[in-house]
Structures are given as C-alpha cells and as structure tokens.
Specification:
Length: about 260
C-alpha cells in the first residue's frame, strides 16, 4: 500500500512497529506483511473519520498483544454453544429412530418412566457441569485444546451415565408411557424441526447427517435379501462413510 496516503501519526507508529519487530528478530517479509496490514487498517479508519489514537498511542508490544488476542479468539471461539447442542441433540437422537420406525411401520413406541426420569436427571447434571465448565474457562481465559478438554469432561460423564441408564432400564421395572401412531408423527416432526433449527443456529449440519446416516441405511437394507449379519455390517459401513464424507467436506471448506 502507498503509505503516503496516511497521516504522519500513522506512518510514525508503523515505523515504530517495524523497528520493534526487527529488534525481535522477525523476518523482513513477515515485518512488511504486518506493516502493510496495519497501514491498510489505519487508512480505512482515517477515510471513515475514525479515531486512530486507540492504536497509535499504544506501544508496539501492546498492539501486538491485542492483535494476538483477536486472532486467538477468531481461531478458538467459545465452546459454550455446545451445551444446548449436545443436550438437545442427544435427546433428539435417542427419540428420532424410535418414532421414525413407529411412523413407517405403525409400531407403538414405549418408554419407561425410569428412562424418561433418568434422561431428565442426566440432562440437568450435564447442564450444571457444562455451566461450571463455561464459568471456569471464562474466568481463567482458557482457549484452544485445554478448553476442548474441559468441555469434554461433562460431555463424557453424561454419555457414560446415559449408557448406564440404558442398561439399567432393562432391569428396573416401572410403568410405560406409550406413543401411538399420531404421537409418533408429531414427535418425528418436532424432532426434525429441532434438528434443522439447531443446525442453523450452530452453523453445522452434523446432527441431521448423523440422524440420516444412523437410521436410514438399516431401513433400506431391511428390504434387501441380505442376511441379518450382513445388513448390520453394511449399515455400520454406510453410517461411517456418510458421516466421514460430511466431516471431510466440512474440513475442506474450513481449510
């Protein structure tokens, strides 16, 4: 950029920054890249009559610290959105397959009071654990891999509790809550809408992809002459391929 278009104050700060980076042993090409980016930013601020003093009155180190913080926040956004996404997504996942089969085959879907109650309790515990994780990461300004690890703790514990509750459901005798055909249609519609809205909000379609990959291959394979074991094997393969393909495409787009 032609720096002659900049004010003397902007040019003076850019030179201070260049000298500071040079004193830190930064390569010349990197110095010029940082300087050009800053020059473009200052030029736009001056053209829009924005005050440049918040930048030019800083020391070069203070400016670089703010720049580094902004880059880290961009690369590592807060994971607090995972709290409702994981909880609601898990509930939709558990119900979707049952009500889908109920709609397609007219089956009566039934859930024990133990399963319903355990889901509610585990959900509340997950929310409390996730809120503690959010509070800890916010208070200690944790980012990157450590933030993922902290948020993974309540998620993993809740998943293990869900598995334990699912196993215990076969041994604990409680009353059943049945869902008839009409109820299955309503629940299927609600689950589909929630999955779509949740994906739009979170800006990721992984939940609908998992629902499709997990439930539809087995339904399709059931109508083939293949044996039960082969159907189960191919169902798992197709599920992995569909989800894997989506994750790969997402990664390429992000890259």
């Amino acid at each position: 950029m032609d720096r002659s278009k900049l004010s003397s104050e902007s040019n003076r700060f850019i030179e201070k920054l260049r000298l500071y980076l040079f004193s830190q042993g930064i390569e010349q090409s990197d110095i010029e890249e940082v300087a050009d980016n800053l020059a473009q930013k200052l030029y736009e601020m001056e053209q829009n009559n924005e005050p440049i003093e918040p930048i030019t009155e800083q020391s070069p180190q203070e400016y670089l610290d703010e720049l580094k913080k902004a880059v880290n926040e961009t690369k590592n956004p807060s994971l607090s959105w995972l709290i409702p996404y994981l909880l609601i997504g898990a509930i939709v996942f558990m119900v979707f397959g049952d009500v889908l089969r109920g709609v397609l085959y007219g089956e009566i879907v039934a859930y024990s009071l133990f399963r319903i109650g355990s889901t509610v309790v585990i959900g509340v515990l997950f929310i409390l654990g996730a809120l503690l994780a959010v509070r800890y990461t916010s208070k200690n300004e944790v980012t990157g891999t450590k933030e993922y690890q902290i948020f993974a703790i309540p998620a993993v514990i809740s998943m293990l509790l869900f598995i334990a509750a699912y196993i215990m459901d076969g041994y604990v005798e409680t009353s059943l809550v049945t869902v008839q055909f009409t109820g299955n249609i309503i629940l299927l519609g609600i689950g589909t809408v929630i999955a779509i809205l949740l994906s739009i909000w979170a800006k990721t379609w992984i939940l609908p992809v998992i629902l499709i990959a997990w439930n539809f291959p087995p339904l399709i394979l059931e109508n083939t002459p293949l044996g039960v074991n082969m159907q189960a094997f191919l169902g798992i393969v197709l599920t992995v391929l569909i989800v894997g393909a989506y994750i790969y495409l997402e990664f390429q787009e992000e890259k």
